[in-house]
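Worked example 2:
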Amino acid sequence: MGINKLNMKKNKKAVIDKHGLCLNEYKNNLNNAKVYLDRATGKSPEMEVSIAMANILKKIVKTNDKILDVGCACGHFYRSIKKRIKKNFFYTGTDPYPIFLDKAKDFWKNDKNVNFKKGNIYKLPFKKNEFDISFCSNVFIHLNDVKKPLSEIMRVTKKKVIIRTVLYDVSYKIQLVYNSKWWSDIDIKPINEFDKKGNPRAYSYFNILSFDYILQTIKKLRPQAKIKIIKDTFYDKSIINKSKSFEKRPLATRILGDEQVSGCILQPHYFVIIDFNTN
């Protein structure tokens, strides 16, 4: 495992926000910004998941639908959607980090039906039912709690919500603990990974939710919603493994057997499709 060498230009002191997110991984991470921008511009191949999401959307998007991408980074999902959906639609991407949004706004500035807006999944800056369809991929796995984010995405969405995250028969609360030996955005030496109480000083969540938990949470928020869960098998193993080598990101996704893996954690990803049209 290599060290992340293209990284934060500011201080490396661990910063955990009130929602349990380690901002060192996102806020000023130049390497992540470059990876996301290369995916958006086409310098890097499309992500397998963005292709899969675009193909799901292709079946349900209607002319002039408004689509929200929560956790959009630089707009690499929009690249895949635009390529596959030929109907007119309006895309909005939201993300809390200007380091990604500024690049997205600059690159996609000539696309008239595209908008990028700073926003946090715990309090989305949009009105009730502002969007026809909203989707969120690779975000819930890193959240300490998903009830409020689910509630927010449902609040701003009229027809359908698509969540891609890691699910299993039981839930696991997992913290990836950072140190400076392998993650150079942090000034914490391996010997100091944990404080005197045994708590990690810098971490990110890599949580796995149980099917029962996600289903019952959705039903509690929206009892009449129809829910479909689809295993994400829509990928080419060789492409994902090649991307891991090309992007040189610590703990980048790889394939072991038929499952996606990050570090030593198996990650069985699923698409959770929530339909508010009960007719």
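The chain has one domain: 23-275. The chain has a mean pLDDT of 90.
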